[in-house]
Amino acid sequence: MIGYRGTGKTTVARHLAELLQCKWIDADVELERRAGKSIAAIFADEGEGAFRDLEAAVVADLCGRGGLVAALGGGAVLREDNRAAIAACDATVWLRASAAEIERRLSGDPTTAGRRPNLTNTGGRQEIDRLLGERTPIYAACATLVVDTDDKAPEAIAAEIAAHLAPGPT
Questions:
Q1: pLDDT tens digits for 75-132?
Q2: Torsion 96-135-4-20 (CA) sign
Q3: 9-159 topology per CATH
Q4: Where are the domains of the chain?
Q5: What is the C-alpha separation between 139 and 76, in angstroms, rounded?
Q6: Which end of the chain is more exposed for a tag (fewer CB within 10 A), N or C?
Q7: End-to-end Cα spacing for the chain
Q8: Helix or strand or coil: residue 47?
Q9: In which element (H, E) is residue 95 found?
Q10: Is 20 exposed, middle or buried (0-12, 13-18, 19+ CB in 10 A)?
Q11: Reported pTM
Q12: What digits encode the pLDDT tens for the residues 31-42?
């Protein structure tokens, strides 16, 4: 799964894996486990470049596995080598949400500020609008399925995805 932060990737991945009876993993959690610190601490201590290098290793590893639902970080699509790894996956689902919905979800999540740094000097809605503008064409190019998440429960989103992934009659 790809998409901007706050679109529901982690929660939907968990529900989708349950429906598909397979494992799931949050790439950001795996990255933090490998680094032994939060994404915000990686940014503060080592910079975005070091974070993106570690992210690339995690993406390559996760995309190389089969039978797994992976929720990738919002910026995972930024590097060409990550996009190549993502393209090798069976399916790439882009969870899409409006900027207003993303802002609402992020402001309501008490862990966002502590775990994830602002990616621009402005933060907030201006950051969301700017980065969505930059990333939307990249998400679209990587996706084999696009699912809007505004006003939908995570379980319903997972069911929608599972229905699209299920093989049709032969």
A1: 999 999 999 999 999 899 999 999 999 999 888 766 555 555 544 445 688 989 999 9
A2: positive
A3: Rossmann fold (3.40.50)
A4: 9-159
A5: 10
A6: C
A7: 27
A8: coil
A9: strand 93-96
A10: middle
A11: 0.88
A12: 999 999 999 899
